[in-house]
Amino acid sequence: VESYGQDSKDDNKLRATTCLIEGAINNILFRYDDAQNRYEEALARVEDSKLTFTRYVSPFATCELGILEYLHRENTERAKELLTKAKEKYTDFDFDNRLQIRATATLKMISARETSATTTAASSK
Q1: Could you tell me the maximum CA-CA distance found in the chain, to the nearest angstrom?
Q2: Which residues, other chains included, contact 13 with Cβ-Cβ below 8 Å and sequence gap of 6+?
Q3: DSSP, res 9
């Protein structure tokens, strides 16, 4: 990290990565509003960064936002939108396979839940 600037810990170029990490920490601490804000800030700031190692920030922030929307906001439409975007838009970066697995697994959970809800609603009529 130090090779990217004299005071790299305060370097705005690294802020997108910092926001992604802070989002993950807040998510683990059950601070979902803070996590969502950090992930969204990471997405906004990654455009400003010209560093090549920040190319994983957008896919992971998008995927984590999708998972958060599904698990903690119960906003399945937004979750599906974000997870699909993470799967289809972002490829050829480090840990691409890991992201694909997480997004696909969450999308399958959403689909199973929707199928279960539809089946339950149909059988109760």
Answers
A1: 68
A2: 4, 5, 48, 49, 50, 51, 54
A3: G
Structural domain contains residue 11? yes
Domain count, the chain: 1
Q: Which of 63, 9, 65 is nearest to 40 (CA)?
A: 65
Do 96 and 73 meet the contact criterion of CB atoms below 8 Å apart? no
Domain harbouring 41, CATH code: 1.25.40.10
Q: In the chain, count H helices and then E strands.
A: 5, 0
User: From CA 19, how far away is CA 16, in angstroms rounded?
Assistant: 5
- Which tokens hold the place of 93? 């970066």
Q: Give the pLDDT of the chain (125 residues) as one tens digit per residue.
A: 445 455 545 567 788 999 999 999 999 999 999 999 999 999 998 876 666 667 889 999 999 999 999 999 889 999 999 999 999 998 888 789 999 999 999 999 999 999 988 887 777 76
Q: How far apart are CA 82 and CA 65, in angstroms?
A: 7
pTM (two decimals)? 0.83
Establish if 115 belongs to a structural domain: no
Could you list the residue range(s) of the whole structural domain that residue 14 is in?
Answer: 2-110
